[in-house]
Amino acid sequence: MKEKKKTSDIIWSVVLAVLSLLYIYPIVMILLNSFKQESAITTNSAFQLPTADSFAGLENYANAIEAQGFLKSLGFSLFITVSSVAAILLFCSMCAWFITRVPGKISKILYFLFAFSMVVPFQMVMFTLSQTADTLHLNTPWDIWVIYLGFGAGLAVFMFTGFMKGIPLEVEEASMIDGCNPLQTFFLIVLPMMKPTMVSVGILEAMWVWNDYLLPTLVLDIKKYKTIPMLIQYFRGSYGRVEMGPMMACIMLTVIPIVIIYLAGQKHIIKGVAAGAVKG
């Protein structure tokens, strides 16, 4: 039995390693081509390592930053991501606390509505959403976080509620006996205990908001505001020509920050997902 188990583990390890390489391969190709000259990317040598003749150094990265208002788009993406994730973490954690600690029909209805929102495809509501955003003036980078809060609340409330059910009620009762009001109990007692789930939800939501292309394209005015994914889609070099080298460099500059955040918090993601999905 042990030999069969070892053989099975080896087979699964090989299969998963191959799948990992297939997922990583496109990123590696983009990284390699971001250091190549234009002529090397548009020919058959696009799948080869950079050579002395095709190596462009950091020229593509410099052109990517200077062209098309990259820093402006980076600022928009950062503000949208930070504001949206902060709103999701704050409001959804408080909502989950209410659902868990105030049982009743209203709490059950709220919970099922949030859970149901994860099932509804975005394509079903995107045209109505675009009109509603224009009507309510939520079509700027400073207001779009309200829309992201609505779409990100389903997963966040689901995970927060699952984790909240595992927090002993006696801890909160003890804080109230000591003189804490409900807000003090939440922010001083409950919120610090939710750190693993807060980190995991924050990273998952940040990856979604940062890489999102469809929602900002539908809501924002493309002529005035472009996030990083929108900038890549409409990337143009001199004379309106698409320059593949700077575009590859722009993609890498977009991928690197979110990869670093994910690697830094991946252990919290596993803990948070397990804590928020198993209980209850």
Provide an overview of this structure:
This protein has 280 residues and is mainly alpha-helical. The chain folds into two domains: 2-58, no CATH class; 60-278, MetI-like fold. It is 73% helix and 0% strand. Helix 1 (2-33) runs antiparallel to helix 13 (244-278), helix 3 (59-66) crosses helix 13 and helix 10 runs antiparallel to helix 13 (244-278). The chain is globular, with a radius of gyration of 23 Å. Mean pLDDT is 82; it is low at 276-280.
The shape, in one word, is globular
User: Class of the largest domain in CATH?
Assistant: Mainly Alpha
In the residues, how many domains can be counted?
Answer: 2
Q: Give me the CATH architecture of the largest domain, please.
A: Orthogonal Bundle
Structural category is mainly alpha
Mean pLDDT: 82
Instruction: Give the name of the CATH superfamily of the largest domain.
Output: MetI-like
What is the third-level CATH name, the topology of the largest domain?
MetI-like fold
Reported for the largest beta sheet, the result is: none
How many helices? The count is 13
State the helical fraction.
over 70%
Please give the alpha-carbon distance between the first and last residues: 36 Å
Q: Based on DSSP secondary structure assignment, what is the total number of beta strands? A: 0
Rg over alpha carbons: 23 Å
Task: Quote the beta fraction.
Answer: under 5%
Unreliable residue runs: 276-280
The run of helices and strands is: HHHHHHHHHHHHH
